[in-house]
Amino acid sequence: RFQMQTAVLFIVSRALRFLALYLQWAIIGRRIYLTEIAFGEVLASRVFRTARRCCALFYACALLYLCGRELWYQCVASSEDMLGDPDQIEQLVAASRGVWDIVVITLIWWVFRRLLAATDCSEARLGPYVEAEAAWARWVLRRLRLFMLVPALANILVRVTAGSVLCAIGEAADVANDVATASAQVFCEVVGFVCLLGMVGTFERGMHKPCDSAALRRCSYSTSQRSQGSGSGLMIDELQCELQTEDAMAKVRELAGRSIQVGALLAFHERLGAGGVMPHYDPWASTTNDVVRQAIIPLSRVPGGGVAYSTMGAAAEVAPVTLVTHAWSNLFVDLVAAVVADALGLKEYGDVADMLAAGEHASLERALQERGVANQACWICCFCVNQHANICGCFAHEPPRGSAAHARWSKTCRDTVTGDVFTCCDCDQSKVFNGNPECELDKFDTMMALLQNEVPGFRHLVAVDRGFEVFGRIWCVAEVAEAHRRSIPQHVQLCSCRELRNDTRNLELYERLTSISVANAEATRPEDKDAILSKIEDVQEFDAQLQVAIVGERGLLGQRFVGFGVWEVAANTARRVKALAKAHQQRHADAAVAPDAAGPPAASKAAAGASVAAVANDA
Ligand SMILES: [Zn+2]
User: Any transmembrane segments, and where (predicted)?
Assistant: First the structure.
């Protein structure tokens, strides 16, 4: 009976150790396989699987032999002689374990060398945001590599140490021998178990920001910065100095007092279309420019001239909490949707735009009421600037016929739906342009500073159009830059964040957004661009902030990954960075082959947003 117990104990302990070992291999193999899928390239999972199976088969045979022999010896036979030498088998198992450990270390090292090489984008210069993501992925992958390598390394280390210790103390010290072997085994098991927990993501609690990356520090800066308005009188004096005249400051105060409430904006959109204002309004075609020319300008006309639309019927001045930047070439429905979605706390406006186009204003109105944001006041240039004091009666200067600029200009003079040239307003309002204290077009920077100073929680919202043209308009960029310079909290509304998800295979949008630079923005007059760029201290730093504002909250760095998933995300990132670097190199190679090919595609974008200011500037 005693002998039977010994045999069972021996078998159970051996089987358990074998199972634990096999589980560890299985998890390493699975990890490599999943990493392969996320990375999109075959790494070493097949080799690993074959090696694992061979090793497991050998182990199982050895285990069966040892267990069977033990059982036989304890229960049936009285002599060991006929059953072979178990020590030799034990030694063989130990040796094979050593070989296996070396195979594991080699494979893992090779796999991670490829992954880490993919995240190396130091040569490609993919922009600070991508570099920050790559740095994060490297950090995560190195941790995973550590968890995978340490058990094998510990095993080898312990064997070598135990071997040399045994050699030193000699075979005679049986007790020391047993103690050393047992403690070495316990040590290896504990290390293996801890690393196993690490591999399944037990220690990943959303620690996704490595502290040593300067780029990431910049990222966290942009999301943590808050408006620093202190309401000091000194600052207002400074602003007045900047403007030089009291008249101009009075105009800034007047502008800063205008606003349109989210609910009113929704109601305005409801009036557009058949049976209302601008009957040919088509939500999927009509641009903001169309709506300004055919709805806002006619509606804001008063006897003797015109006013800003937002001041009509407004009982009292309500200071805006949100300043909205948008391109005039965007769909008007997208502008409204972006503002409404922002008020509702949504991350993207696509669904709201669909609802607006379907005429579901009532349910949106209800949602705004329920959230208590229907009265939230926004500053939107097309509503808050008196269009009759500048652009209502004419178009921008006509560029030379036949040029690309002329085609763009022509678009801004025609309705998108009907193709008819807009009828100009013939009001008697006197027109004032840049440099005049009464001008409403050249004071947005002072106005933003004033609002930041006087309105608690003042923020800046960029309503990004579907074509991302807003970042190609120098006047929009100027507003973004000003908000950044003054540390006004910035928010971005995109039509859809789907393409920014970490696992997306469509890199086009991601690449476009992460390569946005103010240096590429278009201006009707080069001197406008120079003046705006000269206000930005560090263009690279500004680009990084811009990219983080766009991608940051929605992209990788704004999310928290917990547990198992974090490894996938890192491998995904490695794939993405590699693809971007490859595309980048390809472009460079193409550029080297044809240096005088057509200019950058950005150059062909219309500058409708800028046209308002351009009229003023050129006039
Ligand atoms: Zn007018």
Answer: 6-28
Q: What's the CA-to-centroid distance between 389 and ligand 1, angstroms?
A: 7
SS3 percent helix, strand, coil of the chain, rounded to 5, is 65, 5, 30
- In DSSP notation, 81-115 reads GGG--HHHHHHHHHHHHHHHHHHHHHHHHHHHHHH
User: Residue 108 Cα, ligand 1 centroid: separation in angstroms?
Assistant: 72
**pLDDT score for 498:** 67
Contacts of range 596-604, beta carbons closer than 8 Å, 24 or more positions apart: 600/520, 602/472, 602/520, 602/522, 603/404, 603/522, 604/404
Distance 300 CA to ligand 1 centre (A): 8
Distance from residue 391's CA to the centre of ligand 1 (Å): 8
- The Å distance, Cα 301 to ligand 1 centre, comes to 6
- Kindly give the distance from the C-alpha atom of residue 529 to the centroid of ligand 1, in angstroms, as a whole number: 29
C-alpha 504: how far from its chain's center? Answer: 12
Q: Above 80 in pLDDT, residue 423?
A: yes
- What's the CA-to-centroid distance between 390 and ligand 1, angstroms? 8
Task: Give the pLDDT confidence of 154-193 residue by residue, as tens digits.
Answer: 888 887 887 777 777 665 556 666 777 777 778 888 888 8
Q: Ligand 1 centroid vs 387 CA: distance in angstroms? A: 7
Q: What is the pLDDT of residue 341?
A: 95
Burial 584-608 (b: 16+ CB within 10 A, else e): beeeeeeeeeeeeeeeeeeeebbbb
Question: What residue ranges do the domains of the chain occupy?
Answer: 2-222, 225-496
More confident residue, 500 or 347: 347
ipTM metric: 0.95
pLDDT in tens, 328-349: 889 999 999 999 999 999 988 9
Distance 616 CA to ligand 1 centre (A): 15
Query: Who surrounds ion ligand 1 at CB < 5 A?
Result: 306, 388, 392, 425, 427
